[in-house]
Amino acid sequence: MSKSRKYTVDGKKYVFSFDKNNKLDGIQEQSGRAVFRSVDPNSNKFSEISSSSEALNALNVNKFKGNKTGYQTAMEVAPTEQLNKAYEERTKKVTNQGYIEEENGGSLATSNTGGQQYASPRKGSTEIFSYPLDLNTSQDHFKIRKFNYQRKDVNASKPGGTEIQTTTTGKMSKVKRTQTKVNVAGDSVVGSTPLGSVLLPMPKVTDVNGVEWGKSELTISGLAAVGLTDKLTGGGRLAGKSREEAQNDKAIKKQIEEGRGINPDGSSVKQFGSALYAQTISKIAGFAFGTDLDVDTYLARSGGRVLNPNAEMLFQGPVIRDFAFSFIMIARSQKEGDEIRKIIRFLKLGMAPKFRSTTYLKNPDIFTLHYKSGTGENDELNTVNRFNPGGLALTTMAVDYAPNGYWSAYRDSQPVAVKMDLNFTELRPIYEQDQLNTPENSVGY
């Protein structure tokens, strides 16, 4: 079995593989710096590429080397059964290489783990786990990345953003300056180096966005107090209200006064005084007889009325989102059983707090979640929600080793099926600025 050099066909680069009889038994398309993905031999793309002049030239070079007089004019392709078998083997082998390249800057130091290519446990490399082992990353899937938790700001509840950070290395004449784009504000708690990834099939996808609104009630005296506070704060200027907002409010109040001939609070002076008098008298009477006489009780019993509560729904703050996922993992081989155990352990280690002393504990690791189709940074799905890039905490993890209600395991005691439930919580709220920064053809966060 041999491979050709890279050939460019219709603007894309391909490598052609040949069996011992010099027949074409596979085509690999370059999808990353050092990642080549096999083209399905049953697809139209395979037929088109294998019929190209570049494919024929690759066969002739492989078969006849430098003897151009022997070059043939027809392509020789291996039988369909052989093509499919070779395609399956190459697909399993390369499944995770794209992610290793993405997270390690193209460094593909590998070790044979679970029948896949994983980064070796040396400095700067990360582990990639997947279920199933033959997960096709060119299709929709779910990716969990683990990061070290760090803080650069005392307030991490701000919209995310990026800034250019300049790093200087070297001395004297060998000074080298590099610029990198780093997260700031709310996204700065995510460490720069990933600690590993898990690839899983697409789960049930739902997202719930919300904000806190609450009921607020103010009687006439409460409105008067608010009005006094507004004046003492310079029309709200000292409370954070802009000059334009204050002027706009003042103009609206003036129009109301002129149009209705009443006070800004909507009540006549006589009604305002009556309400204050009723409140004062009810408190004095209640004190005199040792009871708590509510003004509404007095007004309702004496005249069939109550103070207007002027009820409104007012914004009270953002809501931090939660996400729940459930996965059923069935071990189809001993290697896949090993991989399932590694995934469970990887997540448990990430969510566990770090003991430093009897005085201090260090934060657990945090995670980023992605719905993806492909291995590139821009392969996020636009058809479903995205997750806060500032990271999520894995708050609970429940693993059921007998989801069918009874114990069922292989000879090595690996459970046949494992149900894993994960609950994540975003570390900060989603703001309007975050939603505006998502692609216009996406559903946003």
Characterization of the model:
The chain is α+β, with helices and mostly antiparallel strands. It has 3 domains: 93 residues, no CATH class; 169 residues, no CATH class; 93 residues, no CATH class. The chain is 28% helix and 29% strand. It has 10 helices and 20 strands. The strands form 7 sheets. Strands 1, 2, 3, 4 and 5 form a 5-stranded antiparallel sheet that branches.
Instruction: Please provide the count of β strands.
Output: 20
Structural class assignment: alpha+beta
Radius of gyration, CA atoms, in whole angstroms: 34 Å
- List the uncertain runs: 96-125
Largest β-sheet summary: 5 strands, antiparallel
Number of domains: 3
Q: What average pLDDT do the residues reach?
A: 77
